[in-house]
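Supplementary Text 2. Reproducibility record for the structural model of the 78-residue chain.

All settings were left at their defaults, and a single model was retained for analysis rather than an ensemble. We include the record here because the model underlies the residue-level annotations in Supplementary Table 4.
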Amino acid sequence: MAKEELTLEEQVERIRAKRNGGGWKDRARRILNNVFLILAVCGLVTYFSGEENHVNGIILVGIAMAFKVVEIIIRIIR
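Retained model, structure tokens:
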């Protein structure tokens, strides 16, 4: 919907929502992104600190990627 089609009240509500953090979707995205970053770093450390078996690091990075996919889906829905 173009901005010209929004009423003044709807435009004000969108501005307020943007200033207040955008609601639950933005908070959820921030949390999911932070979980992704923590798991990805832990996975990389585990992968490179391991001796021969890198499976645990790969599993952690895979789980981190799943969190990132959920965050991207929420971004698309928005």
